[in-house]
């Protein structure tokens, strides 16, 4: 029941976000898209230790910033009999980047490998410019 309630709440929040269009990119700021290929959800959580208003992206002033994302994914544990019941894992990934450029687009990718979660920040050319410096996971 608890999993169903959490899933219903996540769907409700995502549908609310999906109905609101993304704002126009401010050319004086940098834009950070979020993506995951191994998880269920990655959302902007905090920018410079302040809660974000919209979890779908970061829009930052030029210079140095600390980004924190929420990353949800599943881990399969135990023997063959438990593969049908994955364990939910929630992580908060923090990374710093000192050189955000105005008008540039970046991509923050969260990924998992077993119980470990990782984040990388890519610039517009696809080069890794920062990696996570702090990972806090539950459970």
UniProtKB/TrEMBL annotation:
It comes from the Bacteria. Residues 1-30 form the signal peptide. Keywords: Signal. The keyword Signal applies. This is Lipoprotein. It comes from Pseudomonas lundensis. The lineage of its organism: Bacteria, Pseudomonadati, Pseudomonadota, Gammaproteobacteria, Pseudomonadales.
């Amino acid at each position: 029941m608890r999993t169903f309630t959490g899933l219903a709440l996540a769907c409700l929040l995502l549908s609310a976000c999906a109905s609101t269009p993304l704002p126009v990119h401010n050319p004086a700021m940098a834009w950070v898209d979020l993506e995951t290929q191994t998880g269920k959800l990655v959302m902007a959580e905090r920018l410079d230790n302040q809660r974000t208003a919209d979890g779908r992206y970061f829009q930052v002033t030029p210079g140095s910033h600390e980004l924190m994302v929420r990353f949800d994914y599943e881990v399969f544990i135990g023997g063959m009999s438990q593969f049908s019941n994955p364990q939910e894992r929630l992580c908060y990934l923090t990374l710093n980047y000192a050189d955000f450029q105005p008008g540039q687009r970046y991509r923050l990718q969260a990924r998992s490998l077993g119980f470990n979660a990782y984040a990388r920040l890519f610039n517009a050319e696809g080069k890794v410019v920062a990696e996570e410096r702090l990972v806090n996971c539950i459970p």
